[in-house]
Amino acid sequence: MNRREAIKVAGIVAMVAAVGAEAKMAETNMNRMEMKPKDPKKLEKGELKHTPLITVKEKDANGYTQVEITIGQGGIIHPSTPDHWIDFIELYADGKLVGKSTLEPEISRGATAFSVKLDSVKELKARSGCNLHGIWTSTKKI
Ligand SMILES: [Fe+2]
Question: How remote is the CA of residue 22 from the centroid of ligand 1, in Å?
């Protein structure tokens, strides 16, 4: 095989790999339904497992406050297995997107943090996606 043929084969291999990756993503059934608890004042176990917990930490010397988001409340931690995991977490400050974390199964669990200028912010909102159980939201007045 000469150099030109080798480059051609490498290109074909890369194309096949890309098509395979797309097919794998397509066959993964991602639930993107917006979910709401039946009674926000009394969450059931499955709702506790998916509702983002927003924790406002300390402000640093530059005026950024660390905001942690973990998925799961009341001591219930959402699992992270190849078939069931939190795949993203977003944080909004007064409706404006602060950031989005994309999470991989197994190696990470549903948790992230952002450093945010909260000076005039009145409400934080976190959204997270479970591949099986949809998108869950919580808000925190500050
Ligand atoms: Fe889930």
Answer: 23
Total domains in the chain come to 2
Has residue 11 been placed in a domain? Answer: yes
pLDDT in tens, 61-98: 999 999 999 999 999 999 999 999 999 999 999 999 99
CA of 10 to the centre of ligand 1 (A): 39
φ/ψ of 113, rounded to 5, equals -150, 150
Pick from 104, 128, 123, 100: nearest CA to 113? 100
**Ligand 1 centroid distance, CA of 47 (Å):** 9
Whether the predicted model's global pTM rises above the 0.90 cut: no
Residues in the chain, how many?
142
